Amino acid sequence: TDLNAFIDELPKAELHVHIEGTLEPELMFALAERNGIALPYGSVEELRAAYSFKNLQEFLDLYYQGAQVLITRQDFYDLTMAYLKRAHADRVLHTEIFFDPQTHTERGIAFETVLDGITTALSDAAHELGLTSELILCFLRHLSEDDAIATYEMALPHRDRIAGFGLDSSEKGHPPAKFERVFTRVRADGFKVVAHAGEEGPPEYVRDALDLLKVDRIDHGNRALEDSALVERLAREAMPLTVCPLSNLSLAVVTDLADHPLRQMLDAGLVATLNSDDPAYFGGYVNQNYKETQSALSLTKDELALLARNSLTASFASPERKAELL
Ligand code: ADE
Ligand code: ZN
To answer: What is the DSSP pairing of strand 271-274 with strand 92-99?
Structure first.
């Protein structure tokens, strides 16, 4: 349609994408073979068929299992470059990528192997495609705060390559309060802070991400809509939300895109952005998220343009880069 062409051409940023979640089944099989790792699936088709999730945890179990094929610096480079080329095709001018180092260091992969592979691809894409990026290290919330602190200390010598820190993995039972101390340090050291909140967890977790972690953006934020005072606050503070509609559909956070809270978010004047989260697992990169949401919620051209503009303004790009983007 006319609006799909408009979406394809819209200059945009992607602010919520887990690099491990961009591992396509084809690359997973290729890396398994390259590294001599056996996968519990006979084929790419069999693996894809397993991508049917009742909730966040069912997805996470497969996502962590899939990440085990990533061993060498070249593996992390290939993973990241494949995503960057795909994002470039969606007219993503700037991207902010999450990575989960604990998933790898727990398996004996060096932090530097992960970081070097990813950041070499980021710098090649900046030169070759003009696609700029920032990197956000996410702590796994199902692990302890002490584990997060140890990971933070591993990252500090590389602080010039990391823009900020986030919080992901199993939300229920792992509230923001569990990570208050580490994020106090992260902020004092001058980094940006984000956290997944209100994906499966209650509105209180969104409030605590604001009050205790003092986040610069909320990742997801869906369940904030259950609390009208919280919605008013998010609007007043112009707090960006990185919304991921196809992820929400795949993980049964919503049962139908027509019921997606993005409609209420826009009507309440919240600074919403659209993102792919884990596109290899959820059936679509960022433009597919725009297209399916447009169709389900009858988003107008102006609303699509606003969502794309929000993604550029809410980014952590340098002031110089932001001036070019806007
Ligand atoms: N890690 C990767 N994708 C995630 C999601 N949607 N929620 C929490 N943790 C994640
Ligand atoms: Zn996410």
So the answer is: unpaired
